[in-house]
Specification:
Blueprint: H1 5-20, H2 24-52, H3 56-75, H4 85-108
Helix pairs in contact: 2-4, 3-4
Length: 110
């Protein structure tokens, strides 16, 4: 890739964001935001699938498959994904989605 002003700007911006997220408090805030967004996403997914009615099984299968794949990547020792910011954020998002789905299921009593 050529070293243009745009690529230099994007590389510096990415490096600056990574440097800012190394702070433990900002990292914790990012994890909390990802968890809360996951809860919102789980509730939105449940209400959307419930309104349509015929994609309940497909949506639940996709969530289960995505959760298992993400868990295999996160907890596997192959890529050391647990120590990265992206890995921790995706795991918090996954936990939030599953918690949101369980919360909606308990609210509906099913």
């Amino acid at each position: 890739m050529q070293n243009t002003r745009l690529t230099t700007l994007l590389n510096r911006t990415g490096d600056n964001i990574q440097q800012q997220l190394r702070n433990p408090w900002r990292r914790l805030a990012l994890m909390i935001i990802a968890l809360l967004f996951g809860i919102y996403l789980g509730a939105a997914l449940a209400s959307t699938a419930g309104q349509v009615g015929y994609i309940d099984i497909v949506a639940s299968a996709l969530v289960a498959i995505a959760s298992e794949i993400l868990s295999a990547i996160f907890y596997g020792n192959r890529w050391n994904f647990q120590k990265t910011i992206l890995g921790e954020t995706l795991n918090a998002l996954k936990v939030g989605v599953l918690y949101g789905l369980f919360l909606i299921a308990f609210l509906l009593g099913s």
